[in-house]
Design goal:
Helices cover 30% and strands 16% of the residues. By secondary structure, it is of the alpha+beta class.
């Protein structure tokens, strides 16, 4: 497992067994939690090139190319090179919301 903790964010990988693959390809699950304001940032991330907002998530093939470029740049800037390399080598990136509640004392 590898963890990255950029300020206010969390990225991590978990090794995964290859499913009966004779090539024994190394696989991992990669997750990157990034803060996003729901009414602007998340809506922008979930809007396709035609201007249609898909709500709280977006089908991977519809993520706008400039957003993928932005995620890759952010990965290069914020994450360790090993984690940034995973982001840049992904076949398909996707975006799902993660709601975080905070409780004030």
């Amino acid at each position: 497992m590898v963890f990255g903790l950029p300020d206010g964010e969390l990225a991590f990988t978990v090794p995964m067994a290859a499913p009966d693959d004779v090539r024994r390809v190394r696989r991992c699950m990669f997750v990157w939690f990034r803060p996003a304001d729901y009414s602007s940032t998340l809506r922008d991330w979930c809007t396709d090139a035609t201007g249609h907002c898909h709500g709280d998530s977006i089908p991977p093939p519809l993520i706008r190319p400039e957003l993928i470029t932005g995620f890759n740049l952010a990965a290069h800037t914020l994450l360790a090179p090993q984690l940034a390399g995973l982001v840049q080598r992904m076949d398909e990136q996707f975006c799902l919301p993660c709601l975080i509640w905070s409780r004030r004392a």
